[in-house]
proline--tRNA ligase (Fusarium oxysporum), 475 residues
Amino acid sequence: MSIQPPLTLNQKPAEIIGITATKEEDFPQWYQEVVVKAGMVEYYTEIAGLFVLRPLTMFIWSELRKWFQSHLDEMDIGEAAFPLFLSAKSLAKEKDHIEGFAPELAWWNSVVRWETKQTTPFLRTREFLWQEGHTAHLTEEQAGIEVLEILELYAQLYEDLLAVPVVRGRKTENERFAGGYYTMTLEGYIPSNGRGIQGATSHCLGQNFSKMFDISVEDPAGSGQLYAWQNSWAFSTRVIGVMVMIHGDNKGLVLPPRVAQTQIVMVPVGINRKTSAEDKDCLLDQLYEMRKMLKKLGLRVEVDTREGYTPAWKFNDWEMKGVPLRMEFGPKDAKSHVVSYAVRHNNEKGTMPVAEIGPQATRLLEQIQKDMYDKANLAYSQHRKVIGNWDEVTPALDSKNVVLIPFCLDGKCEERIKQLTTKEDDLGDQGTASMGMKSLCIPFEQPGEIEEGRKCLNPECDKLAQKWTLFGRSY
């Protein structure tokens, strides 16, 4: 693997190549710098909103795809590829049957989305990679079972691979997929700005589309034709952006070991002009032998032997790229038969015996994966506030929380809640609206029963509350 110093678009060698914005003070700029300088994307200057996905990104996407496809194979769900284009006639048929499917509002397909105005790498781009599944079932019950199975696979992908916690739930009627019967969802949370973000969805389409396009099978009971119950489910490269936002820090990217292209980087240290060529070769030979041992265990390891860069520069470079574990090996380490290490996400440092480098490195990477999830999960749980008083809602949102409130599930009430929580910031002649909250999901795991007679939290609503519902400002 050829390793080159990280360069941003149109960057001169003398320019700063590290992260200049801080996550706390300028989150949008910080995010843009991280995804570019860590080598995840390049801006495609021909057309706004398009990005080149670099090898680091494609490796992560490939790992997610392999993991998910292996589970689909177990479910006997095969791969297929469909044309990029759809006839205007077919789209018009959807327009005539389904509110929200007018061509000017939903002209999109598997990889292109042109209605997007403001773009952000991974989160909202004009072209993106995604996985979409479509299945047909004989009964509503069979379709419903699969909807939840797929949703749980998506949850495992987030939590077990990306170390990102999610809330599993059902979308409200206002937020469900247009034309669908119901939508199940995973909802994430970005601590830096307190916004919720949709992670993946699994839809039961019901029989709407099967009746529209005459998709039917013979009834096994022999009573004629049955329209199929259809499902649709998808996730996209948005998952990578969520991972970056949650785990990254002011040094750059922080990658969970299970999806890191390089899990361990080994940097030779203590080599200077006084070091003989023989001693240098001996040190490097030991490093390569350790790499060989680690690779046999299935670990992804690089040895950084770039000339012209100090060890400190290399440390900063690999920290910016998010490599989970750095190992340092020099003459002093060789004499003591140890290798020094530094953990990316928490700066923990220590040594391990060369003779035990395999099992100890493996255990350490698993601990890193767990620690990253636990940290993100704690942040999410601490910022999910159960609110029983309307006056507490806006202060909670302003404190970067999402809120669980008793809600009547009425669509008009939901729209009114969004209006009531939208406020004008006092910015002189250029007042801008502060984002109102929207429903994220009705969590499967409720904070408790809705007591009898409890009203919806909306102060203008007289209806009884039906469910605790997660609301928040969101992407």
About this structure: Residues 257-380 form a domain with the Rossmann fold fold (CATH 3.40.50.800).
